[in-house]
C-alpha cells in the first residue's frame, strides 16, 4: 500500500472517529473552507485544497457558428478534510447552477476561483458529486510567456489545450497536475463536424435534432492540462499498434498528405517507446492535426496530442514520449517541468540514435560546442538558467528546460553506462506510473537505482546553469 492510500485511510478513520466520538451524524459535521490554491511556486492559485477529484463527467454542446459553449460538469471527488466550502478553478463562462449531492449549492466567483458552499458540510473521507451548469463564449487565456491556451475558437471549429492553466477556461475543476482523475467527455456538435477528445470513442450518436454526440472515455488518470477537445471537419483514420493499442487520428483537410510520413510511423514509434520506456501507459493513442497555423505550439494532450498543422517525425516522437514522461508520470509542480521536457527531448535523441541519426553523445557534444549542424538548437540559450529552477512562470518552457534537461539525462548515462541508464528510464516510468513526481523524487530514485553518487551531476547540470564547455 502506498503512503497516499495509507493517508487516505487515516483520513477515513479519523472521520469515523469524529462521527462516532461526538455521536453526530454525517449531516452535522462541522467543516472548514478548503484552500483556494495549492501554493504552486509558479501558479499559486492553480488547484484547490481539501479534496481530490476521482472523475470528471463533462457534457458539452458547442456550435462553431456562434462560438457558444454550453456545459454541464459532474465532478466526483473525495473530501480530504471536513469542508464547509471548497473552490473550483473556473474563469470566464457564466455559471448558471451548482449542486452538491443533488442539492442546490450557493456559489460565488472571484477571478478564477469559484467558491461552492454546499447546503450540508462534507465530512472528511466523504465522496461527493458536484454539478456545475454553465455557458458562454470561452475566452482563451494568455500564458505568462505570451502564448495562448484554453478553449480557442478556430475557423470552422475550436480546440482546447490546457498547459499550464488553460483548462479553467472551459470546465471547472481542480486544475493542478497533482490531482489527476478519470474522464468522460461528451461533445455535441452540429452534424457534419467531428468532435475529438482523449481516450476511446465509446459512441457516436445522432441526437435527432441535427447534432452528433461523441462520447470519449479516459479510464486512466489524466492531469487536467492534458484534456483536449477539438471540433472541426477532420478526416479520421483508425488503426492499431502491433501490440494492440487502438489508434484514432483526426487530421484537418489539406494536412493529410503532409502529415502522412510522420503519422504513418506512429504505431512503430509506440512500439519503440514501449521497448525503450516500458509498456505504453494508456488504452488508446492517436493524434489531432489542426489546420496549419491554428496554434503556436504542439501539446501532448493525453493519448492524442494536438499539432498545429502537419507535424515532423521528431515532433510526433516528442509528444508520444510525453505519454510516459509527463502524462503517466506527471510533474508534482510546475517547477518540475524538466521531468516532462528534458525526458521528451532525450527521447528524440534516442530515436535518432536508434534510427541512423547522430548518437546522443554526438548531440550532447554538439550542444557543448554550439554546433548547429547536428542540432539547430545547439547554440540556443540552453545554459540561460538551471533546468530545475526556471526563474519565473514565463520560463517553464524555456530552452534550458528542454535541452539542458536532456543533457542532465545524458550526464547520468555517461556515469551509469548504457544498460543501467536504460533500466533507469524504464524503472522510473514503472515506479511512478499514473502518478506524480518531483525533481527530488527523481534524483533520489536515480541514485538508488544506479547505486551511484550523482551529486556532481545534479549540482552542475540540474541546479547549476554554467556551461562546462
Ligand atoms: N508541452 C509542449 C511540448 O513540449 C509545449 C508547451 C505548450 C508548453 N504549451 C506549454 C510548455 C505551456 C509549457 C507551458 O510540445
Ligand atoms: Zn514537450
Describe the structure.
This protein has about 475 residues and is α+β, with helices and mostly antiparallel strands. The chain contains ten helices and 23 strands. The longest helix is centred in the first third of the chain and has 20 residues, at about 5-20. Zinc ion binds next to helix 4 and helix 5.
Describe this protein with a few key phrases.
Immunoglobulin-like, binds tryptophan, signal, Aminopeptidase_N-like_N, disordered N terminus, zinc ion binding, 469 residues, alpha+beta, Aminopeptidase_N-like_N_sf, Peptidase_M1_aminopeptidases, Neutral Protease, domain 2, binds zinc ion, five-stranded antiparallel β-sheet
Helix fraction? 25-40%
Question: Low-confidence runs (pLDDT<50, min 5 residues)?
Answer: 1-24
N-to-C span: 46 Å
Task: Could you tell me the CATH topology label of the domain at 29-136 and 163-219.
Answer: Immunoglobulin-like
Strand content: 25-35%
- What composes the largest sheet? 8 strands, mixed
Strands in their spatial order, largest beta sheet: 6-5-9-3-2-13-16-15
Mean pLDDT: 94
- CATH domain class name of the domain at 29-136 and 163-219: Mainly Beta
Question: CATH architecture of the domain at 29-136 and 163-219, please?
Answer: Sandwich
The Rg value, from CA coordinates, equals: 23 Å
Decide which structural class fits the backbone: alpha+beta
Work out the number of β strands. 23
Tell me the name of the CATH homologous superfamily of the domain at 29-136 and 163-219.
tricorn interacting facor f3 domain
Q: With helices defined by DSSP (H or I, 4 residues minimum), what is the helix count?
A: 10
Bound molecules: tryptophan, zinc ion
Shape: globular
